[in-house]
């Protein structure tokens, strides 16, 4: 397979997320000018911020709620992701068992309940987000990954989670690719269209009287007696309570400076495929698929039967650089295109319609965490590490519990209430991430987990996207 095939396949790829083509017509909200007073101010209009606004409205019917976004709602991770909507808040069952064995059962249950409640909320608020509970196929490309799938099946069995192990022959009826040798299919997993999700959340929030200001970056947050003052370039908000849902942007609280690092992740979508093309690779259902490497791919069908093919490269830039220009990375797009052609030789002539990237807020435990500042008047949630579509709703509820001052099952979890291991300053941060990435890539080739990864495991530190 020559790189020219990959270059050719990318020649017409548009440099922005395919999902944007499906965005319903939207009138941009005004900038904040002047001074506004409210009960709750929410900084960030992605999934976390908008769920927080919507669920705050259900909890406090008469509260004045303001959402401020630096750009347009959904302009960052929430509008760029794969739309895999997991029945998990802990980045999967195995991660829960590894990091919080004592509360794993609770985390697994809460994750499943959250997905049920998520779907109920979609129905309750009439949100049309192309939600489909079509399942997920986890596939292995190396013999040692097959052992990982067997362990996954065992862990699922422990919690009564339905799944089916597929050997090489059985896998062909779900996915026919020379790259994969076994699989585990789990029926309880959902997919959605992320741009429709964020647009629908935004619409319902506006209908429910939430005040939204876009292109209004908050530059400063200070306590003023029992109130909080948020400063934007052209105005300010005085709020009784504040929820910070700024994901990977430079945090407004100094204490969060080293809690997460920005990892760039890349995605392609093909042109729409017809039934014959999909039959040729044995992908008969609408389930999502992910392979089992440390550097893993995730793939799914869009509503018009494009294949979204993403992941593998996870890029960290020195100094935790955040820059929109870095979300276009031709080297990563070419790697992805070549890998697609190797995984699906029957689709070698298929071209890509869109190529984009986004930033993942990677925490050292690969799961979200929450906390408060300013005597409980400010709450925050971040650290989703590539699994925030469904967990964003849980995070929103946890922040509201914290702002309410009520101790709940959500706020008492070690996962939500203890901070993750802080990333060291540069140059150690860059050196550490690079070394861990090299070890993970070696493990993908050989199945051998080296001393560095074992040491990090022992300290409860992980690296993922
Ligand atoms: C390429 C990619 C693929 C992914 N795939 C999946 C997937 O398939 N499944 C899954 O579960 N998760 C996935 N994720 C992760 C998921 O998208 C995120 O966890 C989730 O969107 C986080 O939502 P958020 O609201 O915290 O962040 P964001 O969507 O980033 O929203 C934060 C918002 O805050 C605003 N903001 C920041 N600072 C300020 C400020 N100072 N003032 C005002 N506004 C501010 C930003 O403009 C932004 O709109 C993926 C992420 C990426 C990047």
Concise summary:
The chain is of the alpha/beta class and 465 residues long. The chain is 33% helix and 23% strand. The protein has 14 helices and 18 strands.
Structure description:
By secondary structure, this protein is of the alpha/beta class. The protein has 14 helices and 18 strands. It has helices at residues 3-10, 47-59, 93-99, 104-124, 143-158, 168-171, 194-207, 275-280, 330-343, 391-404, 409-412, 414-417, 428-446, 451-459; strands spanning 34-43, 65-68, 84-85, 136-140, 164-166, 182-186, 190-191, 211-213, 218-224, 227-232, 235-244, 260-270, 288-291, 297-301, 307-315, 352-363, 369-373, 378-382. The strands form 3 sheets. Strands 1, 2, 8, 9, 10, 11, 17 and 18 form an 8-stranded mixed sheet that branches. An 8-stranded mixed sheet has the order 5-6-4-13-14-15-12-16, sandwiched between helices. The mean pLDDT is 95. The site of flavin-adenine dinucleotide (FAD) has 39 residues, from α2, β12 and β16.
